[in-house]
Input
Amino acid sequence: MPVADVLVVGSGIAGLLAAIKIGEHFPSRKICVITKNEAAESNTQYAQGGISVVTDFLNDSFDSHIKDTLIAGDGLCDEEVVRFVVAQAYDRLEELIAYGVKFDRDSEGRLSLAKEGGHHRNRIVHCKDATGASVSSVLLQKLATLPNVTLLTNQIVIDLITRQPTAWHSRAGTSCHGVTLLDCASSKVSNIFSRTTILATGGLGQVYETTTNPLVATGDGIAMAWRAGAEVSNMEFIQFHPTALTSFGSNPCFLISEAVRGHGAHLINQLGERFMFKYHPDGELACRDVVARAIAMEMNVSGDSEVYLDCAHIAHHLPDKFPTIYQKCVSLGLDLYLEPIPVAPAAHYVCGGVDVDMEGRTTIENLYACGECANTGLHGANRLASNSLLEAMVFAHSCYQDIARRLDNIPLRIESLEVKTSQPLQAAERTLVLQTRASLRKLMTEQVGIIRSEKGLQLTKTCLAELSKLISKLATGIVDFDLQELRNIIDVAQLIVDQSLKRQQNCGAYFNIDHEVHSHFPLERVVQD
Ligand code: SIN
Output
């Protein structure tokens, strides 16, 4: 029977850091990392901008980073968590540097600091415009040196193995003892039992038709935790990145990092007008929700499907500062000295997720969560740019510390559970699954996107309920990769819609045309002095 002391689901920055730290701390314990695709395929791999950390103590301060995070979160951040994260950012950064991540530095060897929307200081450490890819590759190399850590690729987790409290022990809650998973190559279903499980499954951008997230981002961890009874919150706060290359039809959409605006690029409309100052005094560097909504409004008024990012005045910097973005634009035939980049918002990040405390514990015993799938309280209603990798680093560390304290006292419970056999989907059924996924993503983009309405949310709720019934029926006796992803997409879409319907006031990334305008709406946000 396969067993692990610690099971980590997901191989982005959060999962890798947790596995490395626990693996190093317990050299004789078995750690297993499960990932759905190749090890490097995660949201982390696609993160361009960087990590926000106060490193320049002459020009920046913890208070300034805290204030920027709270303002971006529009009143819904947990201030204690914000302080906790900001205060340990530097220590976590030093660990990445010690593992071998080479952040950009100036000619005097100081970390080079970029600026992004909502930050009132330069504080984003980065590796050109491919920070996530650099971090991911260093951490994967580090993981491979640990003999007690096994990495299982191309495995999709179907569900958590949980135990309900028994009547005679009713004060205990539900607990987690492992996972059931499907091997995508052999179609074999199996159970892995573990003392403790960490969900680090990342985001859910693939719930939407246009997204910057890779195909693997289908909300799996959030969906399975919710099915097991974990508390899940703030799902209505879906962050749309303002500047994705949506018009070239790729999935995921290529991202034009916010750091390009931080470097001076301007947003203009079809008429060539720089429009952001109409909406906010911080212009292109207002918080991400404000910029995305302003672009959506410009597009609604003009009927155009994009606005433009004018980089002509900084084009000579792009090959060196943003080589990946520059090469992508060249490959699409764009001459950035002469023409602006067509951009539009795309689903980018879920600010909510599985509720965790400061130790990374979910409401299910022995189940932890960190990274994008967790709702830590840091982001509130809208995440500050480049706080995501930071949050993942800090909460992976919290999970590690708590597990290091507790692991010896957590029993391994192995049960003989019936293992479902996996039947292949018939061709017609697979077509139905794939068509359903495509139409659901379109519906979510149209009705549950940047600008929502009560009618649109109710309509989507009804459709999702029907789809859920259909898919449950189809899933009887079948365990299949496409079906499982669709099941997860439907579950997280339902969470987004249900939690949107419960929110009675516009706030941060949540905007419903039928609600009272927020105190600082339509688009204004307190401007920091
Ligand atoms: C970007 O590079 O614009 C994305 C950074 C982030 O998601 O925080």
